[in-house]
Each structure stands twice: as C-alpha cells, then as structure tokens.
Amino acid sequence: MNKQISDCCFVYNKLLEKKINTYKEDKINLSQFDLNKLTKEFDIEVHSQIKQNISKRINDAFKHFFRRVKEKKGKAGFPRFKSFQRYKSITFPQSEFKINHKKIYLSKIGNVPIILHREIKGEIKTLTIKRCADKWYTIFCYGGVVIDKIKPEEKRIGIDVGLESFATLSNGEVIENPKFFRKSEENLAKLQKRLSRKKKGSKNRNKARLKVARQHEKIFNQRNDFLHNQTAEIVRRFKIIAVEKLNVNGMVKNRYLAKSISDAGWSRFVQMLSYKVENTGGKVEQVNPKYTSQICSSCGHKQKMPLNKRIYECNGCGIRIDRDLNASRNILVGLDKSKLNAFGDTVRPSAKKASVVELGTIFEEDAQP
Questions:
Q1: Are 328 and 159 in contact (CB under 8 A)?
Q2: Nearest by Cα to 100 from 111, 108, 109, 86
Q3: Is 345 assigned a catalytic role?
Q4: In terms of Cα–Cα distance, which of 123, 44, 125, 130 is closest to 86?
Q5: How confident is the model at residue 35 (pLDDT cuts 50, 70, 90)?
Q6: Do the beta carbons of residue 292 and residue 334 sit within 8 Å?
C-alpha cells in the first residue's frame, strides 16, 4: 500500500507539472479528461480507476485555485506539489474492491485484514485507503440509507464560544474547554526535540517522526471526539441554534491567542452543528458578533467590556452577569433582529499592551511591533 501511494504521488506531481506548464506557456487549461489520457503513459502497478482519481484531485485543486483568484482572497498560488509524507490516500471510485468477513480484497494489492467498526448499510459508492502516521484506515462512502429524523426537545438556543470555557449557552449551561493541545504540549515538545536531533534520512529519524505524528493524531482524535459528542447533544436538544459568525482566520493572527483559538476548534464546532442539524429539520443561524459582549442582555444598555473583565456589571439596570452568558443571550436575541449594531470585542493587541486571558489568569504583556 505504501508502494501504491508512492506511485500515485509520483503521477500526481507529474500531471500537476504538465498542467501548470501548459497553462503558463500556452494558456490552455487541461481538462480532467485530458489528464486521464496522460495517465496511460505511466507504467505503474496501480488500478486505472485510482489513476483517474488522481486526475480528479488535480482538477478539483485547480477549481479552488481559480475560485481564490476570482474572490481575491490573499495571494492565490498554484496547487502545490506533494511529497510522499503529504500524499496520504488512494481512492477506488467504483469497483475493484470486495469485503469478505474480516478481510477486504483490493485490486493490485490483495486481501488485507480489517477491523470493521460498524455494519455497512446501503450501496458502497467509493472506497478510500488512508494512511495516518503508522495506521491505515478504510473509508466507505455509501448511499441508499434512510436516516430517522430526531425531534429536538427545545426550540432555540444561543451559543457563545470562548477560551476560558469552550461554550456558554443562553440557558446558563457551560461547556468546559478541554484544551487537549495545551495538556499534551510538554510531551509533544520532548518528541519534537528528539526528532530534531536525528540525522536526516536515517531510520531513527523516521521512528522519531512517527512518534510525533502519533501524538498529533491523538490530539486530533481527542478534539474530534469531544466536538462530536457536544454537537450531537446540542442538536438532539435544540432545533434553532444561534452562533457567532466569527472570522477565525483573522483572529488567529493575534500571536497571543492564536494557539488557544486553534486548540478550541470553533470552526469545526460550527461545521459539525451545521450538518448534524439537518437531520432534525432545524437550522444553524450565524449572528453578527458585534456588540454581543458590550450590550446588556437585560436592558439593552451598551458599555465598554475589555477582554480581562469577566463579569458584566450593567451601569443601566445594575445586573451582574458572566460576560459569556450575557453574550450568548444577545446572540439569541440577534436571531430576531436584522442587525445587532456593534463593533464587538477586538482580539488584536493594542500598540503597547495586550490582555491575554488564559487558564483563568489575566496577564499583561508588552506587545512587540
């Protein structure tokens, strides 16, 4: 399987090189059909449908490239060439594979033992073999299965995501932030330090690289499992879910909070809610985050709320409430308003000082230019 991935990686890079050069020199964009014909020139022990799937990957990559150029989102560059370590999977689009009890037959590979975690229902459309560190996964895509819809218990909820606590619901419930990366950071640093001391190209370096990869995979799996559990519970209980429309890509430019924001996985959280809520007939509404932390959810009074201030004390009605709970209630109110006029909290540090809220402690750090 490693040999097949290596061969596919070679074909991918050659086809990508051909497509880029043709586009630069002749201003001709080779189609997926043109790339399929070029795959016949490579004499490798890989099934023809897998080689055709390589053409599809390149074609999809160029579609995204043209989209980025059209939308003018930053500096759009051609799709990148891939090393063996970055090319991790092969796909059988239609056939040439067969499941037989505890084994799966793969064309040009043979019978491979598998652990079937769940019963396969419906008609299998595609099969993908994926390598993660030193583990291999079989991913099936199948159709023709009717999923029973879930009937939520309650109608609406507002959710405010954060760093001190992962999320605060408008009904007062708080989801604690597990901070998986932060907890594994020390062990990960040791493994990366050992990797850096190994000679490039040696077997010991490859072993050390796999240990680092396993640790990253563990963190990813922990975070994914946490998000799946939390989103499934929220979708089961609530039909209409209001969340902030956050620009996470802009927020991670703050060097004081970037690591914590990435560790939280807010974008993945909203993505999971969005596709899971379809099974309930509900909807995820993204609300403008402006002023959600500055407006009083009780009387509507607006006042400044710096990041280091965790309790909202209203100068209008005198209410004293946690800032995240206040924000989540404003997010819920935002469902009924076309706009929630506000500027909102900034996550960028000021020119001289930056307030960093981490692990429940407030630190004042000099900001570098």
A1: yes
A2: 111
A3: no
A4: 130
A5: very high
A6: yes
Per the CB < 8 A criterion, the answer to whether 215 and 130 are in contact is no
Backbone angles phi, psi at 357, to 5 degrees: -100, 115
DSSP per position, 309-352: --EEE-TTT--EEEHHHHHHHHHHHGGGSS---------S--SS
Task: Provide the domain limits for residue 18.
Answer: 2-143
One domain, residues 53 and 110? yes
Please confirm, yes or no, whether 60 is among the known catalytic residues: no
Mean pLDDT of the chain: 84
Active-site position among 244, 278, 358, 365: 244
H-run or E-run covering 128 = strand 123-132
Q: Confirm whether 324 is domain-assigned.
A: yes
Rounded alpha-carbon distances, angstroms, from residue 349 to 312, 353, 364, 365, 367: 21, 7, 11, 10, 7
CA atoms within 13 A on the CB side of 342: 28
3-class secondary-structure state, position 258: helix
59 vs 34: CA distance, rounded Å: 10
Interatomic CA distance for residues 319 and 312, integer angstroms: 8
Annotated active-site residue in 160, 185, 263, 336: 160
Q: Over the stretch 181-240, which tens digit does the pLDDT of each residue have?
A: 999 999 999 999 999 999 998 999 999 999 999 999 999 999 999 999 999 999 999 988
CA distance 247 to 111: 47
164 shares its domain with 64: no
Among 7, 164, 263, 324, the one annotated catalytic: 324
Is 185 among the residues known to form the active site?
no
The predicted model scores a pTM of 0.77
User: What is the total count of domains within the chain?
Assistant: 2
